[in-house]
DNA sequence: ATTGAAAGAGACGATGT
DNA sequence: ACATCGTCTCTTTCAAT
């Protein structure tokens, strides 16, 4: 696992990142125009941002409702042990559950916060029973369902 | 606001969505090869997915640490009124706070769950004081900080 | 209705000035 | 920063299944 430390970004870099968060398939020609640089200078900066790991990847953003996964559920998981080995074991296990789209280790103990996307409540129950409670060391699992997504994957304020 | 209802997807569509979530800048030539179609058939399907709103956009995925926003904070906000007008007012106000990258209305009351990205704890305090508690109708605000992100913006299980 | 092949236009990447 | 040039990619058209 490579840790990426903070990188110095100037105003032009930030403009590029904002443009590419809004349209990740923008051509370099358009990007250069958007940040008022020549195409070669724009491409050089873009490659530098990619190489430095500032841009980790490009992705198509999928409409969750359109693909039949309209329900987001936030799940809090407590482990019985907070030893690093127990945390790693949990994280390895949870990475194999496709419905888990986000997973954070929270401060103050051994609590994880997960976001799942599911088809319906039966699907939630299935994932809960088959994938979450069966992981060794999982002590408590509590879920709350999102009714409405107000901001979905907003861009970072760069 | 346009609501996108679920769309029928076949196995090839799903393969395309998986490929494009992993690499949103993949060329149509490569995409066609990945799903075993001709370029023209691949491109036609891709445009259909875009037009139907299954793919909402393409985005560069930014490394939060690399741009100096290493801290994710989950904030629960309770409103004093659960009237639809109060909810809408809150959602309009929260949309103007750049640090808020996700916002969900949770079932069972008038609680919102937000994810903020901030530079450090001073930055969190500033956003908390200047942007969150000043929104009319906000009654309770409680924060918890993520120590570690295990799965960052995982792909949807399509 | 969906696919495949082909051809022109445009973008990309590399190089040199 | 600009110009150039070969290559790759996108897009449309048309025929086939």
Mean pLDDT rating of chain A: 93
What kind of sheet is the major sheet of chain A?
4 strands, antiparallel
CATH topology type of the largest domain in chain A: Alpha-Beta Plaits
CATH architecture of the largest domain in chain A: 2-Layer Sandwich
Shape of chain A: elongated
* Number of strand segments of chain A: 5
Quaternary state reads homodimer
Low-confidence stretches of chain A: none
Greatest interface: A-B, 66 and 66 residues
Instruction: State the helix count of chain A.
Output: 5
Element pattern of chain A in H and E: HHHEEHEEHE
- The rounded Rg of chain A comes to 20 Å
Percent helix of chain A, as a range, is 25-40%
Classified in CATH, the superfamily of the largest domain in chain A is Lrp/AsnC effector binding domain/regulation of amino acid metabolism (RAM) domain
Question: First CA to last CA of chain A: what distance?
Answer: 24 Å
- Would you tell me the structural class of the helices and strands of chain A? alpha+beta
Number of domains of chain A: 2
Q: Strand fraction band of chain A?
A: 25-35%
